[in-house]
Task: structure prediction
Amino acid sequence: MKNAINRQIVLAARPVGEIGQDVLRLVERPVPKLAEGEALVRNQILSIDPTNRIWMNEEDSYLPAVQIGEIMRGITAGQVVESRSDLLKPGDLVTGLGGYADYWVGQGQLMTKLPGGVSLEASLSVFGHIGLTAYFGLLEVGKAASGETVVVSAGAGATGSLVGQIAKIKGCRVVATVGTEEKRRWVVEQLGFDQAIVHRANPDLRRSLELACPSGIDVFFDNVGGEVLDAALSNLALYGRVVLCGAISQYNNPGEWGPKNYGELVVKRGRMEGFIVMDYHARAAEAFAALSLWLKEGRLQYRAEVIEGLENAPLALQKLFRGENRGKLLVRISS
Amino acid sequence: MKNAINRQIVLAARPVGEIGQDVLRLVERPVPKLAEGEALVRNQILSIDPTNRIWMNEEDSYLPAVQIGEIMRGITAGQVVESRSDLLKPGDLVTGLGGYADYWVGQGQLMTKLPGGVSLEASLSVFGHIGLTAYFGLLEVGKAASGETVVVSAGAGATGSLVGQIAKIKGCRVVATVGTEEKRRWVVEQLGFDQAIVHRANPDLRRSLELACPSGIDVFFDNVGGEVLDAALSNLALYGRVVLCGAISQYNNPGEWGPKNYGELVVKRGRMEGFIVMDYHARAAEAFAALSLWLKEGRLQYRAEVIEGLENAPLALQKLFRGENRGKLLVRISS
Result:
């Protein structure tokens, strides 16, 4: 890989509010030499996730904050081109935190080899962190059970659309909140959700959820936060669970808003619980076996939107925060 | 009881913000005749609890809202003076929702007979709803374990002081937030808490809690809400639990505030859970056996402040919300 140019997108400034033009900057650097135990991966696909925004903040979260000047952290899938690791050989397909960059140089043990038959796209969605998030968040944290009412926010999103479908498979009544009429139709007509509510410009989301969930919400799987969370809390059923997966509506203004209806957790003996998908990686096989079966049976579907070119990753991130993506948002770095 | 006058305090108006003079009104009514199955109780002691304020709101909570003109709901202890219930005879000591009134007329099955050796005062504190709240909230909801750090807000209050002592007995490190220097000294010097922080006028409660809990907060037992809850959330340990018992700082302005740091539940894989003590009444014997033993061993103590006269119950309630009581606040209706 001598003389190869490695384009990297670095964090140039911490965003205040929305992710502006000055936040991410593309730089070109040479591909470094490998140290013992390392491998060099040609990143092919980059996953654009809401949590990327959290990593940009100054404070550490469940992972250390990305420092100014560092490569922006991101989950990638790609192919090993050189290896000084016993674990990997050229040609292997891997996923991991390869970053917003053409090439990823890292320790072999940080790279996860793709199982046979899994495409690079799928390794960043249903057979990756998205599938694990939906599966374990709904079933392990939320403990959704047959006959219960599950509400999922951002129900047409990468995670939410899987959550709703898994809930249907498990015998739940499923209601989604979504951002657009197109998304509403998709989840109801294509994915079989019982109902979906377009939350934007809904004058009384609380009432809409009440009508959609006459016996209350047993599990609320939240990707959005804000008024959607408050509306769900006020409709919580007795012993209801709120699964905190994300809060995309709040990431641009961290720490400014809190759920005013959290007192409903007392009245309803409810539970609100957060989780991080990394904690479930050791149990990935269990989830992937189930997801794989449901896909084969035609009971599960997913969609992805692929944006071409690493240089467009900052635009893709903005698109995600405007809710304009359809399904899992990916950036193709190379083919 | 012919010609006996029954003073009752009725809800005259719903409070907006603080409980003003117009909210509760004392009226005099005759003692009604007993129907079959009912008993007449001379209320002797009335428990003044933060939750009384919740019952005054227009919306139903875990119990129906008190209606305008109805006797104000309250937990009392007293003596049966007449009975048409097979369950009770004159002279029996009972507790229950006897209300802000001289006399309580109700179905015998709604009255709980006091076990032998339990005083009326104790039946409204350590051997009543307060003891059950502390015991089950800390151990069942919070799952506090030896070696963990427990923080309790309103740590010198009726419930909080028991929570902290039970946590000490169970081998936890205990830090309280309290409202005054007198309370701080009491919980540290008399009850053996490891540390207490006077939260009023503390310029950086978050930092104070961080210093007091160097390895984070494993269980936060919250009676207060507001900035105390946010400060605790920001210091939550990995897999920390927030036990939502109450939010006295917010009851006068319901629905106006939410915990801005609730996102810490995601980062720390935390859980915030509410409960209602009524759900644990069936298991009261288990808690009372433990509490009784600890009292005998001198490992548990409690204090009560008794205000004389039913007519002073509204003032007592205001005192409670100003945090001016020392220990369990009671009103003596008759002796």
About this structure: Residues 44 and 334 of chain B are 5 Å apart (CA to CA). Chain B touches chain A through 33 residues (CB under 8 Å). Chain B has a mean pLDDT of 95.
